[in-house]
Specification:
- It is built from twelve helices and eight strands.
- It is of the alpha+beta class.
- The strands form two sheets. Strands 6-7-3-2-1-8 form a six-stranded mixed β-sheet, with helices on one face.
- Helix 7 packs across helix 10 and helix 10 runs parallel beside helix 11.
- The longest helix has 65 residues.
- It starts with a helix and ends with a strand.
Length: 451
């Protein structure tokens, strides 16, 4: 009965581990189930060996960890460093989680026997211990499933050394937990000195395991998520610096165009003279020089010069790659900083252009942009085509350059939340749509329309 309950609980954990790896490392459904079945077979064989040779517990556990890591490396994709990190996370959650839940449930069961059933020296029989172990493994499996939804950024666009560095402390925590479990299996307990009885000795031991598990969980969480937070902040800072440089370049380009338009009368006089004298070659050179100076940089389209210049550049990129471009923008005046507008439009349009360029069929590529004032709020909507095979989850899509994976959406979120706005996302039937709504001050309702 004990072995059956343990096996059922471990199978639940392996299923959750397979889903975790499938989501973050990628694998076919067939390989996913093959990984689960082979891992279960390894567990059953090693568990039988541990039963026959209890003194070899540490060796059996070590072999199990090595074989589990090997199966993750064999059946899933991505770089080997990333797979090592995934295996380390799964084994650490299993070891720490099972010991935590087992200690907690054991304390509860002993307390129930002692206080309700009035057993003076309660202990858990074989099937009760097996049940507690099985339930603990199921709860650990739930922890793995929960964790898989909160570590997307950990497995996106990092260097191989970063993954390896993140995995090392997890293996150390795993080793500490295994040694503690071996000690408990050998009868090493926290004792009261013999004056309080077996009940309190068991309660003290389980409470010690509970505290150790909590400390190790806290250490692992702080290290993993802290390192990830530091990395993301560095990436966001670098992206903002790059966007600031681009914004300055756009501003300089627009100022150059303004100077050229200021001298338009003189240019018209010069071109008229060349036309009357039929000096076509000189006239062509003159027009080319005007174009190179920024004469074709669009016009005052939206009421915001920085946005005008940025839209012009993105439209040129769209035209060069056969992307249908529609733009209807009404910009409110003076309520949103030009830098924040460049962050919004720049990241949204860069993502849209990349999604369209990944499409093999050029006929269906499109980007539609709309911005206007709606009920004292600024509404910005961008729709673009995308490969139907691509997916979108919590700010992350498939990208050609993994180093920028998700950072653009986080920058957009920072700007929108800074204005107390909201973001709505939708991806279905080969169309990705994002809507941004930001409240405006009363002085911002006057706007200028452009298409």
């Amino acid at each position: 009965m004990k072995q059956l309950l343990n096996g059922a609980g471990y199978l639940a954990y392996l299923w959750a581990a397979g889903q975790f790896c499938k989501k973050h490392l990628a694998a076919s459904k067939k390989k996913d189930w093959l990984f689960v079945m082979l891992s279960m077979s390894v567990y059953l064989v090693l568990n039988r060996i541990a039963t026959l040779y209890p003194d070899g517990y540490i060796l059996v556990v070590t072999v199990n960890h090595l074989l589990f890591t090997g199966l993750v490396l064999l059946f899933f994709q991505e770089r080997w460093e990333k797979k090592i990190l995934a295996a380390a996370m799964l084994m650490t959650v299993m070891a720490v989680g099972v010991n935590f839940f087992e200690a907690f449930l054991s304390c509860f069961a002993l307390f129930f026997k002692y206080t309700v059933k009035m057993v003076s020296e309660p202990f858990l029989c074989e099937w009760e211990g097996g049940g507690v172990r099985g339930v603990s493994q199921c709860l650990a499996a739930g922890s793995v499933y929960w964790l898989s939804k909160h570590v997307q950024t950990l497995f996106c666009g990092r260097r191989g050394k970063w993954y390896a560095l993140l995995a090392v402390p997890l293996f150390i925590i795993l080793t500490v937990m295994d040694v503690a479990a071996w000690g408990a299996g050998c009868g090493i307990m926290v004792r009261s000195g013999g004056s309080m009885g077996l009940y309190y000795d068991q309660m003290f031991s389980h409470a010690g395991f509970l505290l150790l598990s909590l400390l190790l969980s806290f250490a692992a969480g702080v290290y993993v998520f802290g390192m990830n937070r530091i990395y993301l902040e560095q990436e966001k800072s670098g992206r903002y610096r790059l966007q600031n440089t681009v914004y300055q370049m756009i501003t300089e380009q627009y100022q150059q165009s303004e100077r050229l338009r200021h001298d338009m009368k003189n240019h018209i006089v010069a071109l008229s003279a060349l036309f009357q004298n039929k000096e076509w070659e000189k006239m062509g050179d003159y027009l080319k020089k005007m174009a190179d100076s920024g004469m074709d940089a669009g016009g005052d389209l939206t009421g915001n010069k920085a946005v005008d210049a940025l839209l012009y550049q993105k439209r040129k990129r769209a035209e060069e790659t056969d992307i249908d471009w529609e733009c209807d923008v009404q910009m409110p005046k003076g309520c949103i900083s030009e830098f924040d507008l460049c962050v919004l439009f720049g990241n949204l349009l860069d993502n849209a252009l990349e999604a369209c360029q990944r499409m093999q069929c050029r006929e269906y590529r499109f980007i539609h942009i709309q911005a206007k004032t709606v009920k004292k709020c600024f509404l910005l909507e961008v729709k673009n085509s995308m490969n139907q095979a691509e997916t979108y989850t919590d700010g992350f899509t498939i990208k050609e350059n993994p180093w920028e994976h998700g950072i653009g959406m986080m920058n957009i979120g920072d700007v929108v939340h800074g204005y107390d706005g909201v973001i709505q996302l939708q991806a279905e039937n080969g169309i990705f749509a994002i809507s941004i709504l930001m409240p405006l001050p009363d002085a911002a309702y006057d706007s200028k329309t452009a298409v």
